[in-house]
Design goal:
Blueprint lengths: L1 E6 L2 E4 L4 E9 L6 E7 L6 E6 L6 E3 L7 E6 L4 E6 L8 E8 L13 E2 L3 E6 L1
Parallel strand pairs: 2-11
Antiparallel strand pairs: 1-3, 3-8, 4-5, 4-9, 5-6, 7-8, 9-10, 9-11
Length: 124
């Protein structure tokens, strides 16, 4: 079992930055692929970013490339999402997820564990 707790969301203005954190507890953190997803009201859950187990290769959704950066600190059992140049369309609940087996990064069904999410609201 892995427990995931997100933090760092809030209300910001267009162009601002936020850093989300996801603290993991339970089984060996370094053995999991870690991802971030988001979901806006009425929309499907959208892939944002993911990091391989070793932390060597990040993957990003097209809508956030060049603006968001995922990183992980295996010693602290934490994964981060640095979000820059935020836009109103980035408004959503952001979820952290962990996958033990599948490397199908953009697919929510590939992830075994999920946090409860943190709200990010970007005003114009």
């Amino acid at each position: 079992q892995v427990q995931l707790v997100e933090s760092g969301g809030g209300l910001v203005q267009r162009g601002d930055s936020l850093r989300l954190s996801c603290a993991a507890s339970g089984r060996a953190f370094s053995g999991y692929i870690m991802g971030w997803f988001r979901q806006a009201p009425g929309l499907e859950r959208e892939f944002v970013a993911a990091f391989s187990r070793s932390g060597g290769t990040p993957y990003y959704g097209d809508s956030v490339k060049g603006r968001f950066t995922i990183s992980r600190d295996n010693a602290q059992n934490t994964v981060y999402l640095q979000m820059n140049s935020l836009k109103p369309e980035d408004t959503a609940v952001y979820y952290c997820a962990a996958s033990l087996y599948s490397a199908d990064y953009p697919n929510p069904a590939a992830y075994d564990y999920w946090g409860r999410g943190t709200q990010v609201t970007v005003s114009s």
